[in-house]
Amino acid sequence: MVAKIQVSDLHKSFGQNEILKGLTLDVQEQEVLCLIGPSGSGKSTFLRCLNGLESVTSGTVMVNGQRVGDPHVNLNHIRENIGMVFQHFNLFPHLSVLQNVTLGPVQLNGLSRADADARAKKLLAQVGLADKAAAMPHALSGGQQQRVAIARALAMEPEIMLFDEPTSALDPEMVGDVLAVMQQLAESGMTMVVVTHEMGFAKNVADRVAFMDDGIIQELGTPTAVFEHPQNPRTKVFLNKIL
Ligand code: ADP
Ligand code: MG
Question: Which InterPro entries does the entry mention (predicted)?
Fold first, then answer.
């Protein structure tokens, strides 16, 4: 079986500054990998390398067996297969919730308006916002906006979802609803890489947890192994700070 994502000896520098110093990691189909680590350790850069938003300095990133950055591989096809949700949800402010979710499928996938609307309504129901289709983003709470952003990413029917600290910008009382949507998505079999500081989510939902520091994966294992029996002293220090 070919892994959904295969990263091999990935290095990434910005100028003289090497941020990723040789990362090797596979993500299997339907796996949920949570990526934890201190601020500035390169977690976002790593996610951006997975869908070609950043070029790699050396090493390889393969998605569905195709190398990201290969000039013979259509990067748009790879990207359409990878949904991404960010800390700041960046909904289009002048478009309704429904229009935010249908824009990609209509413009990029050539879906008819009726089909895109039907798909969007199903997804909005899935994220608990069936009654908000006509609302404008500014009328929603942060947690609701983030759930729209998840629905918008899912509307492209990706095989992989990347989440970059999706709940970090939210008021505490909004976090649970967003995590619940993500958990449901994980249980439906979506392949997911989730950068998060929500250790409860990582413990309950992740198949594996990777601790990243100083540009490499310092520790990788089941949530129980990483959280209950960390081997690497850096992991222990980090967990002591955040738990
Ligand atoms: P994390 O997500 O773990 O907080 P990032 O991947 O955002 O870490 O950043 C890792 C390091 O890379 C930081 O020192 C950051 O300043 C640097 N960096 C990220 N993007 C760029 C860029 N486009 N140009 C220069 N430096 C960058
Ligand atoms: Mg980041």
Answer: AAA+_ATPase, ABC_ATPase_HisP-typ, ABC_transporter-like_ATP-bd, ABC_transporter-like_CS, MetN_ABC_transporter-like, P-loop_NTPase
